[in-house]
Specification:
single chain, about 425 residues, mainly alpha, 2 domains, 20 helices, about 75% helix, about 0% strand, transmembrane, membrane, Sugar transporter SWEET1, SWEET_rpt, repeat
């Protein structure tokens, strides 16, 4: 419940802050709720008490590989709640009275990545005995040893850990906080944050519709996203997985809309028509196989093409990487798709680890890597001046009326005019 309350509080306050560029009232509300609020102290106290009281249980479970999935989920969520509250309170009490929006965006991105990585690691090694925890931080005491009688009580032996888990999480949280603060001090994040907000306020498809042109965007990311989602819908049906099938069906609907908008405003429809025709034939062929065969037989038939297309979808925005590096302009990359490669790749890779399904883990881990590269290029080369605005200016110049040159009068015409 503590984590759910913190998430709701963070989402509401983040929406209020990001929807206004500069507001003193909302700044105070955000600072009160997320940093100076009394509830933040209560959340931090609850989480700290739980970690301190159950530290030895978590340590022993990790060392012996006996923690349940529920305990690992609980530990992951408590890491998020502890580090989030701890760093926010330190930031609030550092004397700054400003919103520090750039720090907040960076800090929450680091939180998302770290929590996902920790969840991935814990679920991957949940059945593995991590004996180094006892070697480095534990001590085996027997009832007959000095101090063992008091600690082991009625047991013949017991394991005592030197450092509490709350202390370890404090060190990790401080390290992450310093990383977030250091990133915000680099020169480019201020301009990059502005370009990110601009990109979020003008998504790629909306920009295409408003400009009535595909501009510098490529058809490949939208095409592969649509086909991948359609085939993953079939894969979710064959595995009877409602989560995979439902989300993929939603992606197929959105992908068809993206493809339709791009196809409507593109100048070269020949290549797009060929690609869509081939894709529809493949989808119909796979659907026929799913309907006429046993579901278990068609899992690999749909899973392998879906994985291949996931790789193409994640890597397709980087087809123009040479042009991006040469012009130092990444405005041709779809920001929304690149960001979602990071977010969805992290979430789905973690979910694949929980399921033990390699067909879900591998492509999404690749998508996460490609998304990190794409977002890094967007941050390094925002290209605000060379984006859609320059294309519109070029079109305006091309469509402006040209001045007609007057024909020079010949001497004969001049004399006739003087006679008149």
């Amino acid at each position: 419940m503590v984590v759910v309350q913190m998430l709701l509080m963070g989402i509401i306050s983040c929406y209020q802050v990001m929807s206004h560029k500069r507001s003193v009232l909302l700044t105070q509300i955000w600072a009160y709720r997320c940093q100076n609020g009394r509830m933040q102290l209560l959340y931090f106290a609850e989480v700290t008490y739980h970690l301190v009281s159950n530290s030895d249980v978590y340590y022993l479970g990790l060392a012996t590989g006996t923690l349940t999935v529920e305990s690992l989920s609980n530990l992951t969520l408590y890491f998020f709640a502890f580090s989030y509250s701890f760093v926010n309170m330190l930031k609030a009490r550092s004397g700054e009275q400003q919103l520090a929006r750039h720090f907040r965006l960076t800090w929450e991105l680091i939180q998302l990545i770290m929590v996902s990585c920790i969840a991935f690691a814990l679920y991957s090694f949940r059945a593995t005995s991590l004996s180094f925890i006892i070697d480095m931080n534990g001590e085996l005491l027997r009832k007959t040893s000095d101090g063992g009688a008091a600690l082991c009580k009625l047991r013949d032996s017991c394991v005592v850990f030197k450092h509490n888990m709350a202390l370890a999480l404090t060190v990790v949280s401080l390290g992450l906080g310093f990383v977030a603060a250091g990133v915000t001090m680099i020169e480019f994040p201020v301009q990059a944050a502005y370009d990110i907000r601009t990109a979020l306020s003008r998504p790629t498809i909306s920009t295409i519709r408003r400009s009535r042109s595909t501009l510098q965007f490529s058809f490949a990311p939208f095409f592969f996203y649509f086909v991948q989602s359609a085939i993953y819908t079939l894969y979710g049906y064959t595995t009877s997985n409602v989560v995979v099938g439902g989300t993929s069906l939603l992606g197929a609907v959105l992908g068809s809309y993206y493809v339709l908008v791009f196809y409507k405003y593109t100048k070269d429809r020949t290549q797009a028509t060929r690609m869509l025709t081939s894709a529809m034939l493949v989808i119909l062929l796979l659907a026929h196989q799913v309907m006429t065969r046993e579901l278990e037989e068609t899992q690999m038939i749909t899973g392998i093409p879906a994985n291949i297309l996931s790789v193409f979808t994640a890597a397709s925005p980087l087809l123009q990487v040479k042009s991006i590096l040469r012009r130092k302009d990444a405005s041709c990359l779809p920001f929304g798709m690149s960001t979602m490669n990071v977010v969805s790749g992290t979430i789905w890779a973690t979910y694949g680890v929980m399921l033990g399904d390699q067909l879900v883990i591998c492509p999404n881990f690749f998508a996460l890597s490609m998304g990190v590269i794409q977002v890094s290029l967007i941050l390094l080369y925002p290209g605000g001046k060379t984006g859609a605005g320059s294309v519109a200016e070029t079109k305006a110049k091309m469509s402006s009326p040209t001045t007609t040159t007057t024909k020079k009068a010949s001497p004969k015409h001049k004399s006739e005019h003087l006679k008149d």
